[in-house]
Amino acid sequence: MQKIRRILMASLLMLTVCILFTGCASKANIGYVDFEKVAQCPQVKAINAEYQKEYEPLVAQMNELAQKQKSMSPQEYEKDVQALQRKAMGIREKYMAKNQSLIMGAVSEIAKEKKLSVVTTKAATAINLQAPAAQSLIVEGTVAEGGIDITQDVVKKLQ
Questions:
Q1: What's the pTM?
Q2: Which among 83, 78, 144, 154 has a CA at the least distance from the CA of 116?
Q3: What secondary structure does DSSP assign to 65-111, as a single string?
Q4: Burial annotation 28-57 (CB, 10 A radius, 16+ → b, else e)
Q5: Beta strands 138-142 and 148-149: pairing type?
Q6: Pairing mode, if any, of strands 30-33 and 148-149?
Q7: Contact at 8 Å (CB) between 44 and 158?
Q8: Model pLDDT for residues 53-63, shown as the tens digit of each residue
């Protein structure tokens, strides 16, 4: 859940940075979203519950494999661990994509309705967890003053 939120925030923040650096109108309308509140929406919670339901059997398989480790060759154990990790990553990516599509779709619709030039997060720090430590990017998206809070609009759209 935390990783999903980080990735969603990083995606939105990178989009915001790109728009700002490419030169948007001098009187930009800026909106912001509190993803902590959006994550509490029933649709988002339902997707996260589906994720947990599909992921839990993998955790059991990983625990079972750990218990069998001593009776397996190191190569066989490593092969099985990697297979489970790939399966877990596939499940995680599937549900992250569902959440991202759902939330970003709602944010995009509301941004168009309200004629917002940029939408950022209320206050967040995002780290690119996929990049090596030397190349990880920390992006802070904070609305210090002004801006239009579209959080409730997003929440309504997701209900």
A1: 0.65
A2: 154
A3: HHHHGGGS-HHHHHHHHHHHHHHHHHHHHHHHHHHHHHHHHHHHHHH
A4: ebbbbbbbeebbebebbeebbeebeeeeee
A5: unpaired
A6: parallel
A7: yes
A8: 999 999 999 99
